[in-house]
Amino acid sequence: MTECEECRLAHRIDNFVEISWKKNRIIGELESNIKEDKEISKRKEKRTSEIKTIIKELKAEVIQVTKRKDKLENELSLERKDKHIKELETELNSKMPSIKNNAKWNFSTGYHHSRQYHSMVFKMPTLIMLA
User: Which residues form a coiled coil (predicted)?
Assistant: First the structure.
């Protein structure tokens, strides 16, 4: 071999080593990128799982709060109705003494013995039905 051929061969070997080194460096970077991607995927899956769990818990809380709200609304409605009934009872009781003092009632028939208060007989059941 001549010197020129040896130089060319050495130059080719240097190029091959350099290309091989670059190839290995790129492969190493790709492998590390793949590892990072796998780690990121695991973290994403874990976070997604955590988020799904949180969503389930929040949905359960929303259902409980909605039920409680409905219950409280029902109680409030009942309290309003009870208050209205008590107001009607108070109104009825305020009218009853004057009626009791002025006439005798026959509660078995619902009729008044006095003609003067005969019209009141028809008002009483109406007030009781409203209560």
Answer: 55-89
